Amino acid sequence: MRQFATFRLGDQTFGIDVRIIREINRILDITPLPFSADYVRGLINLRGQIVTILDLGLRLGLPRKATGPDSHNIILKRTSELAAPLRTDGGVLDTTSEDPVGFLVDAIGDVVDVEESGIEPLSANVGEAEGHFLSGVIKLDCGLLVLPEIRRVLDRSQPQRNSSTESMETSCAQ
Known about the structure:
By secondary structure, the protein is mainly β. The chain has a single domain (2-154), classed as CATH 2.40.50.180. It has three helices and eleven strands, in the order E-E-E-E-E-H-E-E-E-E-H-E-E-H. It has helices at residues 56-59, 128-131, 150-154, and strands at residues 2-9, 12-17, 21-25, 40-46, 49-55, 72-76, 101-105, 107-114, 119-120, 134-140, 143-148. It has a five-stranded mixed β-sheet. Strands 2-1-8 form a three-stranded antiparallel β-sheet, with no helix packed on it. The longest helix has 5 residues, at 150-154. Residues 89-93 and 163-171 have low confidence and may be disordered.
């Protein structure tokens, strides 16, 4: 059994394994970082530690949105803080970063419990560009939960998705 913290980016519901999340907070006083990639939203001061905040929606190819009253940061554990190596369905080590990093998301949802067998790979008709930052989907009663592949999202050598690509529709109410 795995647990995923759910969140919204636009009209889509995504999930991240709770084992790689350090905390979720509403610190939205983000200092822009000049000369950085457009998906790097900036830096926050988290109890004396500087954390880089990435606009996860923009990194995944969604349009940039202003922060709102439901916006939150999902702060990830560093790779060295993970209790044990985490593996995705493909047997690839699910790493984060050694630098403090977090994702800006539109809204936070619930934590859902999912059997490992309930995680499905992306369908073959999802092109490489569209599925590059995604590792799978989970069918929930209220729609689909999309799983980003964290190590690819954090890898600066990976190209950014084009925001003109079509997105998956989900219907879970948050």
